[in-house]
């Protein structure tokens, strides 16, 4: 897994927004997602409670592609947050959807044994989701959050928190950096000592946003590498 991820990935080069197509030309934000190959993105399963999806927004480097296929984790069900992961295939030609460049690159996948709470490592979350202040919603925001030990998350969320989840965020203050509604499906990315960014988590749930003692919860990607490698195939390197 992640063998074909490329050097030069920056957190924003794999950023994808999943958008719902309206009746006219309008679209609205459904969820975040992350590019893992030319045609595939990884996101959260809970993003899909309706059908007819569309990806993309617009700046000079952004690309908009229609969705061809959505693969939900077979053990995801809407009554719980467990296994909150989905793969989305974009529609392209002859197996190619996006051509990679300095602004469009897939993220690396973690190792199966990836440690996800080491040293409260500072990682990055990103998305176009809600904030508590006025921003330009077209701007991708990033925030830095520390990974928390499993025990902290269990203490806060009890049985709802499973070992297929990671939680992250400062606990002590209110109005802290956190993911929120609209950021779901987007990545929790950490930088490894070799400089590469990997996707450790997928934004999934939490008690509110930025609240004291309520860290954000992320799907632990390292538990789903079989699912990912089953569907996704290497993208063509430009
Ligand atoms: C949501 O509703 C959501 N603070 C996402 C992340 C968090 C809370 C809610 C974590 O999609």
> Order of strands across the widest beta sheet?
4-1-2-3-6-5
Q: Note the overall shape.
A: globular
Could you tell me the number of beta strands? 12
Main beta sheet strand tally, sense and closure: 6 strands, antiparallel
Report the structural category: mainly beta
N-to-C span: 20 Å
Query: Low-confidence segments, ≥5 residues, pLDDT <50?
Result: 51-57
- Helix count from the secondary structure assignment: 2
Helix content estimate: under 10%
Say which molecules are bound, naming each kind only once: 4-(aminomethyl)benzoic acid
Q: Average pLDDT across residues?
A: 85
> How large is the radius of gyration?
17 Å
SSE topology string: EEEEEEEEHEEEEH
Which band does the percent of strand residues land in? 25-35%
Keywords:
12 strands; mainly beta; six-stranded antiparallel β-sheet; 238 residues; binds 4-(aminomethyl)benzoic acid
Explain what this protein looks like in three dimensions:
Residues 1-233 form the Peptidase S1 domain. Keywords: Disulfide bond, Hydrolase, Kringle, Protease, Secreted, Serine protease. Its main location: secreted. The chain is mostly beta strands. The protein has two helices and twelve strands; from the N terminus they run ββββββββαββββα. Strands 4-1-2-3-6-5 form a six-stranded antiparallel sheet, with no helix packed on it. It has a six-stranded antiparallel sheet with strand order 8-7-10-11-12-9. Strand 2 and strand 3 (40-43) form a beta hairpin. The longest helix is centred in the middle third of the chain and has 8 residues, at 150-157. The radius of gyration is 17 Å and the shape is globular. The model is unreliable at 51-57 (pLDDT under 50). It binds 4-(aminomethyl)benzoic acid. The site of 4-(aminomethyl)benzoic acid has 11 residues, from strand 11.
